[in-house]
Design goal:
Blueprint lengths: L1 H27 L12 H6 L2 H4 L4 H7 L10 H14 L3 H27 L3 H12 L4 H5 L4 H22 L3 H15 L8 H10 L26 H7 L1 H20 L11 H20 L8 E2 L5 H20 L5 H13 L12 E3 L7 H17 L3 H28 L3 H11 L3 H13 L3 H14 L4 H13 L3 H14 L4 H13 L3 H14 L4 H13 L3 H14 L4 H13 L3 H14 L4 H13 L3 H14 L4 H13 L3 H14 L4 H21 L1
Antiparallel strand pairs: 1-2
């Protein structure tokens, strides 16, 4: 009979896990078809040559010194690096990685709660709410938020290992807990609150404290732990607190160094506190009513009456959980889990201009889910009718939340829809700027320009929007307007490397080479590990005739980004100019290995092959160029010259005739045709 009961319990766990996995897959299935988006994905993946460099000892080491994302999270950057190695620019693979980690988080959360309490259905319900809640979609569907799902994986794994340690305390079991916590901090510093949550678990359900509770779980908890003094439990966590302190210092230093942290001059401490209190209430509201979600929530203007009501609600809820800390200990644990884990992102230390974010609720909501599920299960356990009603209601709630999450997930597959969704409720400069970028991707330049104008109108110090508008002006040929915007962008933000670089590209286009070199150099001084900056400064130096400096820049670009086709091509041009055709061909070939559809490399390599008499290879290169662009006059002409040199006069004549059809005034092609005609006539005379 006991064996049958254990088997049934095991089966229930397996069924619960399968249901949790299926729920996640159903909600997020279409994520594999989503592309990268223009909001931080380029920072972490698509424009990040550091993670595209491949997995080497050097690149792995570099993740430990990389802070350009305003965070120090080497484990997260390594995960992006691995994804790029496996999937390249195919976004679906990156999305699947995030989803798989979220599925692991869901299953591990179920196993953790089940181990802690012995409860199956309650644990499964909390895990299901975690799996399907729409607030969590942002963490899963946004590639740049890999740090959130990955750090949570280490969070839950640390807790599981802690339970294993508590069963039989000792340093051999303590060390894996410590190492897992360290890995979590290196994924995202959000884990700084985990030691406090472990202390909460010591109270309930581990019952390691001297404080007794009256609560009984639905199944006898399998864990038997020794009672310990509070002082011992705190002392036990000292190594964790030391890591927490180090992580906080590193994070503050990193965010201050890159200018991500908002000063108290911009947002006073009083406003930060009021915004924090207001946000605590809004998160709870969105847990129960996740309808008005957004990628971005602006800082709120909070009236005194709103602040008083919000503060009162928080105080009342805190008093209730403190009053019932013995009878319903999970209320205290869940509530302080929620309050505590939100502290790093609640806005007391303000990073960015948002008041709150859906992704910030990924871990804190677990505390609220525990409170809700355990309390409802406790109050209905003696009434079979109410218990059945609760099960039915739970099924409906999970179904509704799943549908809402599925809809929210689809939104992340369409950048334009995503930013329209933000602008539906919040007319903020940031959303106009990113919608403008989405319009640019679709080639709708007039709509993009209108959005950039609106963004700058709402925030006249929005340097990024000015830079984006300047890029658009440059694209449509309005160079004077572009130059004005670039100038304003760098005046507003003197350390804006991208604006200097883009202005340098404009100067390069209009052949103001000294100005271009100066801007590229300024960009390099600010961000010395950007391969594009060196490559394009090399181009400007080459055009100035400063070949040695140019060559050094191309080499530096390749040192920073090994698979950089353009830098190999530019190196090849330098060799070609100096008639060093063999190294030129080697560099053009390397460029084509990396970028097979590199027409300019094919064309120039064809010229180099022709220069050393390798006519067959030259014909192959010119023919490929003409397959891509049948009206490529230089390729037609050079192919004609090669065929002429090979004495294939009829074929050569055809190429020059094509040149004249495209451009009747092509005197050079006419000259070659006359030469061929003269050769033919001379041959006829010789034959006669």
């Amino acid at each position: 009979m006991i064996g049958h009961s254990q088997l049934t319990s095991k089966h229930l766990k397996i069924i619960s896990i399968l249901i949790l996995i299926i729920l996640n897959i159903l909600i997020y299935w279409n994520i594999q078809n989503h592309a990268f988006i223009n909001y931080d994905d380029q920072l972490y993946v698509t424009s990040n040559h550091r993670i595209q460099a491949g997995i080497t000892l050097k690149s792995v080491f570099n993740t430990f010194t990389d802070t350009h994302t305003s965070n120090w999270h080497p484990i997260t950057m390594m995960s992006h690096m691995l994804d790029w190695q496996l999937f390249g620019d195919r976004a679906g693979g990156h999305h699947w990685t995030s989803l798989i980690i979220h599925i692991f988080n869901t299953v591990l959360l179920f196993l953790l709660l089940n181990q802690l309490t012995g409860a199956i259905w309650r644990s499964a319900m909390v895990a299901a709410l975690f799996a399907v809640h729409p607030m969590n979609v942002e963490s899963v569907a946004w590639i740049a938020e890999r740090k959130n799902v990955l750090s949570t994986f280490f969070w839950i794994l640390t807790m599981l290992l802690y339970v294993w340690y508590v069963k039989q305390p000792g340093w051999k079991r303590y060390l894996p807990v410590f190492l897992c916590f360290a890995l979590g901090l290196m994924s995202k510093p959000m884990l700084v609150t985990l030691p406090f949550v472990l202390l909460l678990l010591d109270y309930w359900p581990l019952n390691r404290t001297a404080i007794n509770t009256q609560n009984k779980t639905e199944i006898q908890v399998p864990l038997k732990t020794e009672k310990e003094k509070i002082s011992f439990l705190i002392l036990e966590k000292i190594p964790f607190f030391i890591l927490t302190a180090i992580s906080i210092c590193v994070t503050l230093y990193t965010q201050h160094a890159v200018g991500a942290m908002m000063s108290t001059g911009y947002l006073s401490l009083a406003k930060r506190i009021s915004n924090a209190l207001f946000s605590y209430n809004l998160y709870i509201k969105k847990m129960f009513w996740p309808i008005d979600l957004s990628v971005f929530y602006p800082l709120y203007k909070i009236d005194i009456w709103q602040l008083l009501i919000g503060s009162s609600l928080l105080i009342i809820l805190t008093m209730i959980v403190l009053n019932y800390y013995r009878k319903y200990p999970y209320l205290l644990v869940g509530w302080f889990w929620y309050l505590g884990t939100l502290v790093p992102v609640i806005g007391l230390v303000q990073v960015g201009a948002q008041s709150m974010a859906d992704r910030y609720a990924y871990v804190p909501f677990i505390g609220l889910f525990i409170m809700l599920v355990w309390y409802l299960a406790d109050i209905v356990k003696r009434n079979a009718y109410i218990k059945f009603s609760l099960i039915l209601t739970s099924f409906v709630v999970i179904s509704v939340l799943s549908v809402l999450s599925w809809q929210r997930c689809q939104l992340w597959g369409d950048q334009l829809a995503l930013w329209n969704d933000v602008l539906k409720n919040h007319k903020v400069a940031l959303a106009y700027n990113f919608r403008g970028l989405a319009y640019v991707d679709k080639g709708q330049y007039s709509l993009a320009l209108a959005d950039y104008n609106l963004a700058i109108e709402r925030d006249q110090k929005f340097a990024e929007a000015l830079n984006n508008r300047a890029i658009l002006y440059f694209t449509i040929g309005q160079y004077n307007n572009a130059l004005k915007d670039y100038n304003q962008a760098v005046n507003l933000k003197p350390q804006f490397a991208d604006a200097y670089y883009n202005r340098g590209m404009l100067y390069l286009e209009i052949h103001q080479l000294n100005a271009a070199v100066a801007d590229f150099t300024e960009a390099i001084n600010i961000e010395p590990d950007m391969a594009d900056y060196f490559n394009n400064r090399g181009v400007a130096l080459r055009l100035k005739g400063e070949y040695e400096k140019s060559f050094a820049d191309f080499n530096q670009a390749l040192k920073l980004k090994q698979n950089f086709a353009e830098a190999y091509f530019n190196k090849g041009l330098i060799y070609h100019l100096h008639k060093q055709y063999f190294p030129a061909i080697a560099n053009f070939t390397e460029a084509l290995r990396i970028k097979p559809a590199y027409v300019d490399a094919n064309f120039t390599r064809g010229i180099a092959f022709a220069s050393i008499g390798k006519y067959d290879q030259a014909i192959e290169d010119f023919s490929y160029v003409l397959q891509v662009d049948s009206k490529h006059i230089p390729a037609l002409k050079n192919l004609g010259i090669v065929l002429k040199n090979m004495k294939r006069y009829e074929e050569s004549s055809v190429q020059f005739q094509k040149c004249i059809q495209i451009n009747p005034d092509d005197n050079e092609a006419l000259k070659y045709l006359k030469e061929i005609e003269n050769i033919k006539k001379q041959k006829l005379r010789q034959m006669n």
